[in-house]
Amino acid sequence: ENNLKNIEHTNWSNLKCAILEYTSKASFLLNDSLNGYKYLAEYQKEANNYYLNNQNKTIAELETKFKTEQKNAEIINQKNIIVQEKQRQKTFFTAIISLIILLSISLVFYTTVKNKNKRLSKLLQENQFLVGEANHRIKNNLQLIVSLVAREKNKKENENHDALTNIVTKIESIATLHQQLYINEEKSEINLKTYLSELCDNLLPLLQAKNIMLTKDLDEMLFSIEKSVYVGLILNELVINSLKYGFTENSSSTKEINIQYKNIKNKKIELTYTDNGKGLSDKEKPKLIHLLCSQVKAEYTIENKNGFYFKTAIKL
């Protein structure tokens, strides 16, 4: 009891519980049930208080720990937000500076290209003018050659009349091409229908002199200059061969030549030439036709089908 009085006003609950429990058991051993139950009740009360105090203390510690961790998390989160915001600002300013630099470079590049394009456009116009003039002069020179050769072949004593006629038609074929180049804005391609139509018109007097009727069926299309030269020469050679070998002088039937070319799906042209003459003999081999077709890597077919039949396909 003295011990209990000494610690009655202290917070030593653990010690109080031990003393109360010991005193209660001692009272029961001394057959003092009244004090035994008294101290037992006080022991249980003190034990409950001790347990509740410990529980409240634990809860308080947990709450404090939770609040501390929560506060630390908020601090870390705020720091992360600040870091992210600084990073965004840094990225934004970097992007703005990069954009300004890019725009400056683009402006300089655009100005440079624009100035170069102006110079190139001027040079191109000058070049087109010079090319046009060159084509015009070439055409005039070729026409002069044609006139001189024609004058020579018209001499009665000239024994090379057919050979000169052949040369004249070939020169006229090339002159017609240069005429097309001169009048066209596009210098790398020409209208093949217009070119071949003019070529046929140039050959028409020779055909009419032998009462040969010419029909043509030509598609509208653009074709490269290089290959157009060969197409014109092939056609010219075919007509000259028909004039020289295709028809007999005393033939009573209508003499006909048909020229047709088709644009096949913008991939190739298909040229077909026929006459209703006597056809090609086994001894006659169109060597020049073979040479011209090989220059444009074109395969061709020659047959006798109610006359002479020629067909070739030339890739665009």
Please characterize this protein's 3D structure.
It is a single chain. This protein has 316 residues and is of the alpha+beta class. It folds into two domains: 1-124; 188-315, Histidine kinase-like ATPase, C-terminal domain (Heat Shock Protein 90). It is 68% helix and 14% strand. It has seven helices and seven strands, in the order H-H-H-H-E-H-E-E-H-E-E-H-E-E. The chain has helices spanning 2-7, 13-29, 33-153, 161-183, 192-209, 225-246, 287-295; strands at residues 189-191, 212-218, 222-224, 255-264, 268-275, 300-304, 308-315. Strands 2-4-5-7-6 form a five-stranded mixed sheet, covered by helices on one side. A two-stranded antiparallel sheet has the order 1-3. A hairpin with a 3-residue loop joins strand 4 (255-264) and strand 5. The relative contact order is 0.05. The mean pLDDT is 78.
Number of domains: 2
Highest-level CATH class of the largest domain: Alpha Beta
Spatial sequence of strands, sheet with the most strands: 2-4-5-7-6
How many individual β-strands? 7
CATH-derived architecture of the largest domain: 2-Layer Sandwich
CATH superfamily of the largest domain: Histidine kinase-like ATPase, C-terminal domain
Strand content: 5-15%
Q: Percentage of helical residues?
A: 55-70%
What summary fits the major beta sheet?
A: 5 strands, mixed
Q: Figure out the total of helices.
A: 7
CATH fold group of the largest domain: Heat Shock Protein 90
